[in-house]
Amino acid sequence: MALKVWLVACFAFLYAPILFLVVFSFNGSRLVTQWAGFSTRWYVTLWNDEPMIEAALLSLRVAAVSATLACLIGAAGGFALARLGAFRGRSLFMAGLAVPLVMPEVITGLALLLLFVTLQQSIGWPQGRGAGTVTLAHASVSVAYVAVVIRARLADAGEVLEQAAMDLYAPPWKAFVLVTVPLMAPALVSGWLLAFTLSMDDIVVASFTSGPGASTLPMVVFSMTRLGTTPEIYALATVIVGVVAAILLGVILAARQVR
What we know:
Layout: H1 2-24, H2 41-47, H3 50-83, H4 90-102, H5 105-123, H6 131-157, H7 160-167, H8 172-201, H9 204-209, H10 217-225, H11 231-258
Helix pairs in contact: 1-11, 2-11, 3-6, 3-8, 3-10, 4-6, 6-8, 7-8
């Protein structure tokens, strides 16, 4: 009984704040300490808030492109670690991939900022910081996470199916396309979603590598909360929670149908 009470308390601690912001997103009052009746005014305000909408669309574009880049590069890195054996420089390669996993984001953001400034002064690219530099920065951070997922998937799957395909006279490239890539597919999807989420959630690296007119959604929300939270932010959070819940529900239903 005590264990059940402890579990309920833990889950309440985790999810009660989310329930709180969902409820108060429908509060007619601007003050979170006062309930003024049910209202959808803050959703209307959010819909008409052009800077917020533009920041959300920018974050979605940056997250999608950076996740795709991270997935392509991370897949190559994970494949190299899982299938190429003890090649020269493997330890250094592994260390390089692991750096973003353990490096504080402040250091990563500062290092990327110095890199972009140096490149601009040396070769004239990039011409200022903006959405492009944020995308590259997020991709460079997410590569390590994708590589870890891909490596774990290939290590768990083993090489039996690939060797069987080549024993049946399939050339290496065909075995890779028809056997290895389908084996990697679940990890590719998971890695892409993880990289997408990391990009949507990031504020530290984006703050260092963005420029005027390229504020992502977390940056805008953080700027607004410095002046005090408003129910409009609660409405935004509720929309995000609803979208994520719908996606998770769709994945669960799709998995049940596959079974």
